[in-house]
Each structure stands twice: as structure tokens, then as C-alpha cells.
Amino acid sequence: MRPVRVILNAKSPLINTPAWLALQDHFKRVKNTHMVDLFDEDPQRFDRYSIEFNDMLLDYSKNRITDETLKLLFDLAKQAGVEEWRDRMFSGDKINNTEGRAVLHTALRNRSGKPIFVDDENVMPQVEAELEKMRVFSRKVRSGQWIGYAGLPITNVVNIGIGGSDLGPNMVCRALAPYAHNNIRVHFVSNVDGAHIDHMLNYLRPETTLFIVASKTFTTQETLTNANTAKQWFLEGAGRVTEDDIAKHFVAVSTNETAVKEFGIDPENMFRFWDWVGGRYSLWSSVGLASVIYVGMDNFIEMLEGAHEMDNHFQTAPLEKNMPVILAMLGIWYGNFFNAESSAVLPYDHSLRMLPAYLEQADMESNGKSVDREGRQATYSTGKIIWGAEGINGQHAFYQLLHQGTRLIPTDFIASVQSNSEHQNHSDILASNFLAQTEALMKGRDIEETRQQLKDAGIELHKAEKRVPHMIFEGNQPSNSIVIKKLTPRALGSLLAMYEHKIFVQGIVWNLNSYDQWGVELGKKLTNNILEELESGKDFHEHDSSTKGLLDWFRKSCLKEED
Ligand code: G6Q
Q1: Distance, CA 493 to ligand 1 centroid (Å)?
Q2: Relative to the CA of 222, which ligand 1 atom is closest?
């Protein structure tokens, strides 16, 4: 736990509750248990600690757990009221207490036909209407019926957005690329560094490009700056165009109609969503428009269906057989009792290469909080650092630290069995690596085995003994294996919903509001103060000497360049 400057008098009572204390006690007894022994003792361990959901398998047997551990973890979940809070979320209660909002990304994929109410209003007709609007629009673009100002169909779609209005649809487009339209390419511009949009625009022609300006608030500086640059590029490139022509090339996704109009986008070309959809949970809404155009509405609906099926599983499966709950409680076991600081997401599927970045935001922005729902200091660690990269590349880079470093880093390995590539030999190598890594992380290599291997390699005894300490692997590094038969839109939907619910469960156990993001808001505010000073060259605000020194250095360096 980092020391806090603002000490809140009130402390969250979590660590003194019966379920927490029981886990602490249990931890003291089992903390040195090696998984190799657990596997030796129980030949059925895989059967006992794995579950299937549709075409997905979760093997969590390579964790430092026993039946007793799981029982105590589920006791903690029950004590926290996970089931009650879950039902409140699904029924539209305003569980985002600091913003007074419902949390209803699940309504966006509610395929049950049942109503969901927010403030006594059934939101489902609006959700359905927006989906229909996306269907009609995407069909026109995909079929070439949507014609640009020069009479040509759209071949390139650029999503301009950031954070929740970028990462989700971007990741979905990469993941579902094998389902994509042959003649339409999708691009994502998020960074306000002009190099990002410049690079993109170099390859595009105004007459065949469609811009989607995606911003929940439509006030985000990065997005509006990029959108204005795109508009200027369009106007300069297109020559004499009318307002009608702009409407053919710019559409918006937002909750803020007034700001969309002010920007110059016709509300007819605006796709809506609602304040009960958090940015990082919005890929299921019209924020997914770029992905809809890319893979088609039918595939998007399949993804929603897959997510809905996971929602049903989460709502109905007992905690002990509930995938998101199991993953969440394992994370708490390592984060709060073993003091693991981070957790790695390692996809063995090239299509899922953006998943770690997406989950970084989903998880860390949701549970990176140090005050509980009641405004009391959280005296336990909360959201873990989530990081990762494509597994196979990581093996040749950072896995060294997983195998022989000093930290405990639980991992999620994610693999799909049926590859989208036709090269079966590649797929077999990929799968073997995934399997071998989880085994090695669990088993490690002890002294005897190491000595034997060196002997077998013909290394002389005195040399071998020097090497032995460096070649020992402690093992006992926990991992979950999530294996999907094939990464279809449906499977992707289930996978993402599973992680969303995992994050939810952890937030409930830590008694956090996982759905606000004051840290993001702070960044937006501070920037504006400094921008004013950078642009005017005048000082309006007080800063520490470092920030002031840096600001001055920037200004001086700018001047020199201009000279
Ligand atoms: C998400 C966050 C944040 C947000 C971006 C973009 O939950 O609040 O990542 O999505 O700051 O915000 P806008 O969509 O309002 O532009």
C-alpha cells in the first residue's frame, strides 16, 4: 500500500470482517504450498478446477488453491453481497453512486426481450432503435450505396475517439478482422499528437473517407482537435463542397446532441447512447459503429448474443461455478493475500493482440480507487496493474521475469484452438508454446532435475554446479487458461463480458464504485490550465518548480525553433 497524503479518518472495515480474517488465517497455513504437490495429491485436479461455458474452457487448476481456499473466497464474495449487487446492476439501479447513474452496458446486449427500466422508463426501445439505425447505415456503407461527395463509395472509415471511445471498437476490429468487409478499411485516430492523424491522412482520399467522431461527452479536447483537423483536411482536399457534402463524410457517436450540432454534424447523422453506459463499457453501443461497418451488423449482433449468454451465466450460475466470479476471487486471493501487484494477460491468438491494452483500461480505470463507496479509506490494495502482450512474442522478451524473477505474477493465458490461418503447422507450434509455458510456470525445475539435465548435456561436474543456481526455476507461478474453440464474434462477446463481470465482482468485494473515473477528469482539467499558459506565454496558475521549469523550457525551445 502506498502512503496516503490525505488520510481519511474513516477506514473501510473490510480487512476486519470474518470472511477476510478467515482467508488471512488460511493464507498463513498454505502460502508455501507448491502446486506440484497439489497436482501429485489429486490426479483429478483438472476436472475439479475447470469449467466449460459454450465453446469456452476455463482451466484454473494451476492456481495456488485448495477446496478450502475456494470456499473461503466464495464466503468473502457472499459476505460482500456480490449476488445482490449483481442483481441491482442488471435491474438498472443507480449503482454508480458518485455520478448518480445506472450501469447498464448489459442492456445494450439484452437479447431476452425483457424490459429494463431506468427512472421508470424502459430503455430497450431506444437501444433497439439505435441498433436498427446502425444496421441501416452500415448496410448502406458496406454495399456502396452510401456515396461520398464525388459520387464514389466509402473505402476507408476513420474512428476519431480516445479511451473508451477508441480502445473497445479498435480491439474488436482487430479481433474480428477475419470477418471484415473486403473493400473497407478501418482506422483509429486517438492521439492528439498531430503525427497520428497526419500519418493516417497521408494514405486517404477525402472522396472515399468517412469519419466517425466518437465521444460520449463531445467535449474531449484530443478528439475534437483531431476531428477539426480532419474536417479541415476534408474541406481543403475536397474543394468546393456544401454542408450536404460534409454530412456524407462525417457522422458522430455521442450522448451530447448540442455539442454535435455545434461541431457541424447534422443530428440526423448522430448515433446515440446514454449516460448509463460508461465509456470503457461502451463498445456494445453505437461506439461500436466502426466495428459494425467493418464486420457487418449480423456479426455485431452475434457478439452481443455471446455477451448476453455470458450475462445469463453470470446471473444464474452458482458462485462456485461462475466463471467471472472464479476469476475475480482468484485475483483477490493473489492481490490481497500474496500481495501480487500485477497480473498479465497473454493471448496466444494474433487477433487478440489488443486485448491487453483494452483490459488495462477496463480494469485499472474501474478499480484503480483508494476510497470505498462510503468515502472511507480503503486499507487494502485494490485494482491490480494489468499488463500483457501477445504471448508468443512475450516468451522472447519479458517471460524471463515470470519464470525467474522475484515477483508473483498471476497470468491469464488465452488461446483459440481453431486458427483463422490456414497454416496448421503455425497453429500447432503456437498451441504447444501456450501449453508448455503454463506447465513450466507451474512446475518450474528443481535442483535434481537441473543437475540431471546438465549431466545429460555432458557438462563437467564442477562447471555444472556453478550453473545450477542460475538454471533452477522455482515454478509455482499461477495461471488461468482460457481456451476458446474458435474466436467467433459470439465467443469474443462472451470473453469480453466475462472480463467485465470479473472487474465488477472485484469492485464489489473491495466496496468500490467501479464506474466513475475522477482520475481521467483531473487530467482533462489540468491540461486546459497549462495549455492556456503554453499558448499565451503568460503565467496564470501556480505550479511546483518542476512543472514550472518544464513549462518554461518548452516555451524557450519553441521560440528557438521559430527563430
Ligand atoms: C472511460 C473513460 C475515458 C473516456 C475518454 C473519452 O470510461 O471515461 O476513457 O472514454 O476520456 O471520453 P469521451 O468519449 O467523452 O470523448
Answers
A1: 21
A2: 16
The residue-averaged pLDDT of 290-299 equals: 98
How do residues 466-515 score in pLDDT, each as one tens digit?
A: 999 999 999 999 999 999 999 999 999 999 999 999 999 999 999 999 99
According to the model, what pLDDT value does residue 3 have? Answer: 57
Confidence label for 560 from pLDDT (cuts 50, 70 and 90): low
Q: pTM for the complete prediction? A: 0.96
Q: How many CA atoms lie within 13 A of 495 on its CB side?
A: 30
Q: Which of 105, 159, 216 to mutate to test the pocket of ligand 1 (most atoms within 8 A of CB)?
A: 216
Sequence-distant (6+) residues with CB within 8 A of 5 are: none
Q: Which amino acid residue places its CA nearest to atom 8 of ligand 1?
A: 279
Q: How would residue 55 be classed by pLDDT, with cut points 50, 70 and 90?
A: very high
Q: How far apart are the first and last CA of the chain?
A: 49
HSE at residue 217, side-chain half, CA atoms within 13 A, is: 14
Which of the residues are catalytic?
A: 365, 396, 524
Tell me how far the alpha carbon of residue 192 lies from the centroid of ligand 1, in angstroms.
14
- 3-class secondary structure for 502-522? HHHHHHHHCCCCCCCCHHHHH
Enumerate long-range contacts of 242-250, CB under 8 Å, 24 or more apart.
Answer: 245/148, 245/149, 248/146, 248/147, 248/148, 248/149, 249/148, 249/149, 249/206, 249/209, 249/210, 249/211, 250/210, 250/211, 250/213
- Grid coordinates belonging to 131: 441498433
Mean model confidence pLDDT for the chain = 95
Q: Which atom of ligand 1 is the closest one to the Cα of 517?
A: 8
Decide which of 239 and 165 is more confident.
Answer: 165
CB 354 within 8 A of CB 175: yes
The string of pLDDT tens digits covering residues 246-286 is 999 999 999 999 999 999 999 999 999 999 999 999 999 99
Q: Please tell me the distance from the alpha carbon of residue 152 to that of residue 181, in angstroms, as a whole number.
A: 17
- Residue 365 Cα: closest atom of ligand 1: 7
Query: In angstroms, what is the span from residue 359 Cα to ligand 1's centroid?
Result: 15
* Residue 41 cell numbers, joined: 495429491
CA distance linking residue 283 with residue 163, whole number of Å: 11
> If you measure from the C-alpha of residue 215 to the centroid of ligand 1, how many angstroms do you get, rounded to a whole number?
7
| pLDDT (tens digit per residue) in 385-422 | 999 999 999 999 999 999 999 999 999 999 999 988 88
Q: Find the largest Cα–Cα distance for the chain.
A: 83
Q: Taking CB atoms and a 6 Å cutoff, what residues make up the pocket around ligand 1?
A: 162-165, 215-217, 220, 223, 278-280, 365, 517, 520
